[in-house]
Amino acid sequence: MTIAQDYFDDVIAKIGAVRDTQADRIEEAARICADSIQGDGLVFTFGTGHGGFAALESFPRTGGVTGFRPIVESSIALMHHVLGDQGTAQYRFMHTQEGYGKAILRSHQIKEGDSLILFSHSGINAVILDMAVEFKERGLKVIGVTSVPHSSQVASRHSSGKRLYEIADVTIDTGIPLEDASQFIDGLEFPVGPTSTSIAVAVSHAINASTAAELVSRGYEPMIMVNTNSNRTKLAHQQNDRNYEELWRRLRDRDFSAPVVR
Prior knowledge:
Layout: H1 3-38, E1 43-46, H2 51-56, E2 68-70, H3 74-77, H4 88-94, H5 100-108, E3 115-119, H6 126-137, E4 141-146, H7 148-151, H8 164-167, E5 170-173, H9 196-217, H10 233-252
Parallel strand pairs: 1-2, 1-3, 3-4, 4-5
C-alpha cells in the first residue's frame, strides 16, 4: 500500500468515526443554527490559520444556507506569505493575544439571536477563546469543532484557563490525535499527511446541511446557494443574488450598539 492510499484510508476512517460518534451533536448544533437563521440572526463562523478554511466553507458555497457568516481576519487567516507582510511571525503573535477576539466581534456587531461556530484543532489560543467567552457572557450559543484528544493534553493560553471544548454549548469532537499528521515514514522524524482540515471541512458541511433539514422540518424554507457552473446558470445567478440580498438585509439590521471592548 502506498502512503497516499494509507492516508486516504485514514481520512475515511476518521470521517466515519465522526459520523458514528458525533451525529447527535451535529444535530444539536444544527438546531442552534436553525434558531439563529429562523430568528433573523446570523451564524458566525471563525477559525484561525487552517481552521479558517472550514469557517469559509459555510457561505457562500454551493449547497450552503444563507445566514451563515464567516469572519475572516487576514492577519490570522493567511500564513502562506511566511515572510514579510502578514507573515508567520505576525500570525504566531496575534492569535495568542487576548482581547483581539473581542475587538473582532465588536466590528461584526453581534446581537441577540446570533450564534457562533468556532473551528480550532487545539482549542487553546486566545483569539478563539476570547470569542467563545464573549458569546457566552452575552447568553449566546457557541458551537466548538475541535479535537478533544489534542486539546485535553495541552494547556489553555487564555486567562479563563479553559479550552474550547470546556466553554462551548455543543462540542463536536473531530477525534484528531495530538500531532494531527497521520503518516509515518521510515527515515523521517516527523509525520506527514495532516487530517484536521479535511475533517473540519466535512463537519462544516454536515452542520450546514443538517441546518437546512432542520429548517425545512419546521416549515421554514432556507435560502440555498446554487452552482452557477451548470446548465442553469441564469437561474443560479438569480437565486444567488437573492441570497446575497438576504444576507445584506440581515447585516443592515445590525443595531451598532456593541459595548466598548473591555
